[in-house]
Write a structure and sequence with these properties.
Length: 118
Amino acid sequence: LIKTLRSDFALNDHAQELLRLCELWVKNPTRHSRVQPAKFADRHRIEGLSRWVADAVFHSHGSLAAADSPEVVPAISLAGKTVLATVSLAVVDCEPEQIAERRRRYISDALVVAESGV
């Protein structure tokens, strides 16, 4: 998804940095790396598709509450639903005649990732 967003959308520097932080979580999924993208997005008031990726990372595991609060665990399906929503919005954020090709490419990319276990 991150690769797709970078290839298909003109992202400003903050959105690019947000995606980089999300990639760090993929490589090392810790509480710190899970929370950093959401904090960065809040601090820089980032909206749009890159923010949705950060939200999916945040909803992936761990507590949604502050570190010193009782644990609030997200529904197990929340991260997946957020990713699905992001991909669905990205597919249609183009000229209508490009939607079918983009959908095919996104599905193909997702299958490659799923088969590689990444």
